[in-house]
Amino acid sequence: MSSVAKNHSEKLPVLSVENLIVSYGSNKAVDNVSFSIKKGEIFGLLGPNGAGKTSTLSAIEGLVKPQSGNLLLEGTDMQKHPAEAKANMGVQLQSTSFQFELTIDQLIRLYAGLYNVQLARRDILNSLKEIGLESESGKRFKQLSGGQQQRLSLFIANIHHPRLLLLDEPTSGLDPQSRRQLWDTIEQNRRNGGSILLTTHSMEEAQSVCDRVAIIDHGKVITVDTPKGLIEKHKHDQRVRKVARGKVTLEDVFIGLTGNEIRE
Amino acid sequence: MNNTPEPLHYLRSLLQADFVVLLRNRRAILAGLLSPIYIMFIAKSEKTQARLGGSHFLVVLAVTLGILSLALMGYAVNMARDRERGVFQRLRVTPVPQWTIMVSRLLIQVLISELIAIVVLVVGSRMNNITFSAGEYLSTLLVALLESAMFLAIGQALVGLVKSASTVTAVSSLLFAALLLTGLLGNSGILGDTFQTFSKWTPVGTIMSVFQSVLHQVAWNGHTTLSLFACFGYIVLCGFIGIKWFQWEAR
Ligand SMILES: Nc1ncnc2c1ncn2[C@@H]1O[C@H](COP(=O)(O)OP(=O)(O)O)[C@@H](O)[C@H]1O
Ligand SMILES: [Mg+2]
Predict the structure, then answer these.
(1) Does residue A47 surpass a pLDDT of 70?
(2) Whose C-alpha lies nearest to ligand 1, atom 1?
(3) At A1, is the pLDDT very low, low, confident or very high (cuts 50, 70, 90)?
(4) Residue A252 CA: distances (Å) to CA of A206, A234, A237
(5) Which residue of B has its CA nearest to A153?
């Protein structure tokens, strides 16, 4: 790459989502969503159940066809070049599952093959040690605990060191230890220059790991900023003031902007 | 940017995984292997065999039974179940073309079907003290290939039309019984002429007509050729339905 081109690609967002619309029949799950993610950035989609977080990710992952909108991965049109886009994305789905019959070892080999990654026996062992699964490598997927399945799934999402990691509610259902470990992994990823798009409805998570957060509801992005910036920007909003008890927190901003009725 | 993977590379990985998945699926393998051996065992008496069309015919009938159960219990049921678990969604976010996910499963099914055919032929000849010539082995394996394709197409149509795994399981069992009984009882003629004509054109009926000619029990005639075409017709029709309406996601 020439230095001009390199400079250009450094500036280019890793992911840009422009005017994305995703519909299921007459239900508009994602309604004109736009945002972009910089290199090394951890970007959070924060929203209540049914807000359209998973649908937004599904469109980026190529699992659902958007009704309209542009999706660019480092400037490449992801809808025109899906294989190339997928080769540079790592994915952890919200309800992910691997083949129950395969062992950890076999699953790692399978996905290494699908992502064109050469892994020596020693590499696999080392990585298993890192995620605390070295003594389970012969166990079948269905025999693993929820936390172990989650760790394996994150490891496989990252197996080809993608530009962009998409994590859909990665910490829901994890115990505090596993959650901390996941945040460490996310940090480490960032240090290696990878960008991450994650969804969550945990304020703590948004605040402690995300560089920027988009609050999304009813398929629309309501506001985007750093967690601190969001509080600054909205702390005088009437709706936020009304729900705040004392100093305004991110949760107050969230509840203020998305309302306090309970979602299914 | 990372490169997209090589077809040979990812096909090998998928095939290996699907092979292990199917072999570890105890229910499918038991259904595919034990049901043919069981039917050969209960039809051991010469009288029963004569009524069913002779001991050679009984053995290929058992092959058909094995391949049918593998296609329904191994392919259709597992596809529906893995779809509900989200296994396909995870595979679909990798850079491999989607159709390879299904083709790999189908190829492994066909491979195991052929293995079942060989095992049943060997066990069947031992049990009945008969021999199959090399030519008969070869042509039986060829017809087994055809019937594997036909039953898999039927299984594909089933998972194309029905989403829930538990419904697919229930319908598979019913379909298994229905296909078998119509194909078998029709042949025996005990249910009358109309039914016999009908049963000749069911999937099991047509494939058994082809088998009869291949084993030289009946000379290859116009009916055999038509039966062969009917098999291809079932493959095209069910394959079309099963692919057109197939959805990767269960909801
Ligand atoms: N596959 C689907 N078919 C039909 N409707 C769907 C599907 N997936 C999601 N929806 C609907 O789209 C809306 C957004 O859902 P989702 O993207 O899963 O939200 P979130 O991940 O924020 O909880 C919801 O109303 C949901 O019922
Ligand atoms: Mg979701």
Answers:
(1) yes
(2) B251
(3) very low
(4) 13, 9, 10
(5) B90
**Beta-carbon neighbour count of residue A240 at 10 Å?**
21
Percentages helix, strand, coil for chain A, rounded to the nearest 5? 40, 25, 35
Cβ–ligand 1 distance for A48 under 6 Å, the answer: no
Per-residue pLDDT reduced to its tens digit, B194-223: 878 888 899 999 999 999 899 888 889 999
User: Do the bridges between strand A15-24 and strand A68-73 make them parallel or antiparallel, or are there none, so unpaired?
Assistant: antiparallel
How deeply is B93 buried, as exposed, middle or buried, from its count of CB atoms within 10 A (0-12, 13-18, 19+)? buried
Is the separation of the CB atoms in A70 and A36 below 8 Å?
no
Q: What is chain A's Cα-based Rg? A: 19
How far is B75 from chain A, CA to nearest CA, in Å? 14
Q: Residue ranges per domain, chain B?
A: 6-244
Identify the H or E element spanning A23.
Answer: strand A15-24
Contact A152, A107 (CB under 8 A): yes
Write down all domains in chain A, each with its CATH number in brackets: 3-88+162-258 (3.40.50.300)
**Which residues of A fall within a CB distance of 8 Å from B92?**
62-63
A216 within ligand 1 shell (Cβ under 6 A) = no
Q: What does DSSP assign to residue A235?
A: T
Question: In the predicted model, what is the mean pLDDT of residues B20-46?
Answer: 89
Residue B102, min C-alpha distance to chain A (Å): 14
Tokens of B117: 């055919």
In chain A, DSSP finds a helix count (H) and a strand count (E) of 11, 10
Q: How far apart are CA A198 and CA A43, in angstroms?
A: 6
Question: pLDDT tens across A100-139, in order?
Answer: 999 999 999 999 999 999 888 888 888 889 888 988 889 9
A47 lines ligand 1 (CB under 6 A): yes
Q: Nearest-CA neighbor of B215 among B75, B61, B74?
A: B61
Say what the pLDDT of residue A2 is.
Answer: 42
Question: Which atom of ligand 1 lies nearest, measured to the CA of A47?
Answer: 22
Which chain A residues are Cβ-neighbours of B82 within 8 angstroms? 99
Q: Distance between CA atoms of A12 and A75, rounded to whole angstroms?
A: 7
Does residue B98 register a pLDDT over 60? yes
Mean pLDDT (chain A, rounded): 90
Tokens of A100: 């129950």
Structure tokens at A103: 């062992």
Per the CB < 8 A criterion, the answer to whether B26 and A115 are in contact is no
Closest approach of A141 to chain B, Cα-based (Å): 12
Beta bridge pairs of residue A164: A89, A195
Q: What is the ipTM for the molecules in this complex?
A: 0.91
- If you measure from the C-alpha of residue B26 to the centroid of ligand 2, how many angstroms do you get, rounded to a whole number? 34
